[in-house]
Write a structure and sequence with these properties.
Chains A, B: GO terms for molecular function: DNA binding. Chains A, B: It comes from Moritella marina ATCC 15381. Chains A, B: This is Helix-turn-helix transcriptional regulator. The structure is a homodimer. In chain A, 64% of the residues lie in helices and 0% in strands. The first copy, chain A, is mainly alpha-helical. Chain A has one domain: 434 Repressor (Amino-terminal Domain). In chain A, helix 2 packs across helix 3. Chain A starts with 6 loop residues before the first helix and ends with a helix.
């Protein structure tokens, strides 16, 4: 099954939410100011795929977890962000609730 | 901040859980039988990083969502798998509960 690469849409979504330009985000993760805008635009258009180190830096700058960029639907992406803000204890509690009762 | 690439540990974890060898998984995602074991071993050792198409194929074979491979802690990884089994309605319900009450 050939599926879409979720990175472009997630990256654009998180960048817009963080109200930062492609150029500024590129500079913050270490790109040269002269090429930052074009390189980030390539990532958002899906022409190039960022490597994992660049993705980790973008995740940190945008306040999302690394796995957010790979969520294939919007609700899973939103849940990934909510889970990222939880403590280890809260995550374990949620796991046990979901195993017992599902989402009810 | 330099962080570990989570793919190797997640891949090995999901493959062991699915009780499949490196070679068999490699063949299932389209590798040549003669190189499948070595190539999969490189991925699990972190010497090479699979591209997103290979990761999507592995996710499908192992019954995990693509974002599972990028979860940086075990509890987030387990939650990603649980969320992947939910319907869209269940995910939306969980989002609204977490926004209202947190993990309680």
């Amino acid at each position: 099954m050939v599926r879409e690469n979720p990175i472009p849409i997630r990256l654009k979504q998180a960048r817009k939410k963080a109200k930062i330009t492609q150029k500024d985000l590129g500079i913050k993760i270490g790109m040269e100011p002269s090429s930052a805008s074009g390189r980030m635009n390539h990532y958002e258009k899906g022409r190039h795929t960022p490597d994992i180190t660049a993705l980790q830096r973008m995740a940190d700058e945008l306040g999302v977890p690394l796995n957010y960029f790979f969520c294939e639907d919007d609700s899973a992406a939103e849940l990934a962000c909510l889970i990222d803000k939880m403590s280890e204890g809260e995550k374990e509690l949620l796991i046990s609730k979901l195993l017992k009762h599902g989402a009810d």
